## 1
Amino acid sequence: MNNQQSLKIGVLALQGAFAEHIHMLRRLGVEAVEVRKPAQLADVDGLIIPGGESTTMGLIAERWGLVEPLRAWVHGGRPTWGTCAGMILLAARATGQKQGGQPLLGGLDVTVNRNYFGRQVDSFEAELAAPVLGDLPFHAVFIRAPAITEMGPGVQRLAEIAQGNGEPVVVAVRQGPILATAFHPELTDDPRWHALFVAMVRESERNDR
Ligand code: GLN
C-alpha cells in the first residue's frame, strides 16, 4: 500500500455473511474484495473472517488449501477481524465443538465457547457499551453466538454482555492486530466496528513502512 486510498481489505468468502462486510467497507470508502484463494491474501492489507458456521467454513478452507495460508497470515501479525464463526476460527482454544473437533487457525489467546448462549434462544439483540467506539452504545446482533470464557494477559476486552445471573461475559476483544466480535456488526447500520478495523489496518501499514 502506498497511500491511504489504495488500502484494500479482503473478506474470506467461503461461506456465511461475507457480502454484508464488503458492503459496509465500501460504504466507508474502502476497497473490499472477496478472498477464496491463498494467492489473494498477498494482495490485501487486512482480512475479515465473517460469521456463518465455523465447522463448515473450516472444512471448506481445508478442502481449498487455505488453512495453512490463513494460519501463516494470522500468526504473521497481519490485521484480522473475526466476527462470530470468524471469532471461533481465530481462537486458540474452543469448547462445545462437534465431535472430531474442527480446524482452528488460532492466533487469538482466548478460549471460546462455540454456542455459549445455547441453541434454544439462538438469536437475540442487545444495546451494549464499548468505550473503544465512543459514548453511544451499539446495537449487537447475536446469532448462535459464541462468547469468550478465558483470555490471556495480552488480550484487551472491548465489550461484554450481562447474562441472566448478572455476570458479564466477554463478547469483543482485541489482541494487537487481531479484532474479534461474537456479534454481527455487518448486519446493522452502524459502521463503527468496521471503522475501527480500518484504523487498525492503517496503523499496521504505518508500522510496516
Ligand atoms: N456458533 C456458530 C459456529 O459454531 C457461529 C454462528 C455465527 O457465525 N453466526 O460456527
Note: The chain has five helices and twelve strands.
## 2
Amino acid sequence: MALIVHKYGGTSMGSTERIRNVALRVAKWVRAGHQLVVVPSAMSGETNRLLALAKELMPQADGPEALRELDALAATGEQVSVGLLALALQAQGVPAVSYGGWQVPIRTDSAFGKARIDSIDDTRVLADLAAGRVVIITGFQGMDPDGHVTTLGRGGSDTSAVAVAAALKAHECLIYTDVDGVYTTDPRIVPEAQRLTTISFEEMLEMASLGSKVLQIRSVEFAGKYRVPLRVLSSFTPPDIDLDEEARSGTLITFEEDEKMERAVVSGIAFNRDEAKVSVLGVPDKPGIAYQILGPVADANIDIDVIIQNVSHSGRTDFSFTVHRNDYARTMALLQSQVLPATGAESVSGDPKICKVSIVGIGMRSHVGVASTMFRTLSEESINIQMISTSEIKTSVVLDEKYMELAVRALHKAFGLEQPAAV
Ligand code: ASP
Ligand code: MG
C-alpha cells in the first residue's frame, strides 16, 4: 500500500464522461490497496472562458483589487472539477471528499495570478485518508495570509499536485495528461520523435524552461527541491488497463544520474518561438555599460534571456539580448527613450521574428564536441546562428524564426534521437 497523488489535466476532466473515466481509474488504484489524493484541473477551456468573461467587464484588470477578483473567479473552474469528481467516485461506491485550496489549507503568498505556495497543512487530508476516503484537492489555487483565494499561474495545477505530494511525502506523483509522456522533441514537428522512458530532473527543468509545455516549470522546480518522484503518463488509456502496466508507463523524472550514464548524450531538442531579439549598437565600451542597459529593463520587470556583448572595435561594442515577444515593443521603446541617451550608444535595432532552439542532455557534461555537432548540422542546412548560449547541460542557439522546424528536424536526426532508446 502506498500514498499516491494523481493529477488530471483539463482535457482529462473535459466532460462528465471523461470525469467518470478518471473516477474509474482512481477506483482501480484504491481497490489495489493504495491511498489516493487527486488534484484535478478545471474542465478544458473553462479557465479561458472565465477570464474572457472578466475581460468583457474590465478589459485592463491589473490593479490589486481587480487581480484579487480575477483569482477568486478563475479558481472556480477547479472548484467545479473537484465536486464532480468526488460525486463520480461516490457513485461508484468509493468514499471521496473534495476540498478547495483554502480548506486544506494550501497557504500561498499574496501575488495574485502567480502566487507561490508557502506551506500545506496535511492534518485534514491525512485524517480522511486514514478513514478510507479518496481526497480530491483543487489544483491551481491556494489562500493567502489574509484568507484571499489566490491562483498559481496558468498551468499551476501541476505545481499544486507536486506540492501536495511533497507535503504528504507521497510515494509517487502521477501527472495524467493528454500526451503519453515526455518526447525527444515535439512530435508535431518531428513525427519520428520518441517517448523517453526516463528523463533526469535537471533535463526536465531545462526542457520545461525552454518551451516544452508538458509540465509547468514551477512543478519541476518543486519536484527537484523536495525530490518528489514524478511520472507523466496518458489519461487516455482505457481506465481498466492493468495497474502495473499503467504504473510503469509514460516518462519517469528521475534523480539518479547513474542510470543515465549509458544513454544518449543529448536527450531532447527544445524550441521556443516566444522570444524577440534587441540590440544596442555602438555602445561605448566601459565599465558599467551592461548595467546601464539592463538595469532599466529589469526595473520595468522585463525578463531577459540570452545576452551577448561583442568584442569592441575602437572603443565601441554591440550589445544584444532576447526578451519575451510580448515585451518586445516595450523593450524597444525603453531602449530608445532611456538607454540610448544615457549610454551615448549609436542606435538600437530589434527583430521579433527569431526563435531559440536548444539541445539538452546531462551527457553533455562529460562529452566534448556536442556543441560542434550542433553547429556543423546547422551549417550544413545553411542556417545562420545569431546568438549562442550554453550551460552545463544545454546549448541554445537563436535563429531566424523561419528556420525553426528545419533546425529541429536536422538536430533531432544528427543526435540519433529517432532511434528508440535502448533499455
Ligand atoms: N486551470 C488552470 C489553467 O488553465 C490551471 C491548470 O490547468 O493547470 O491554467
Ligand atoms: Mg497543464
Note: The longest strand covers residues 275-284.
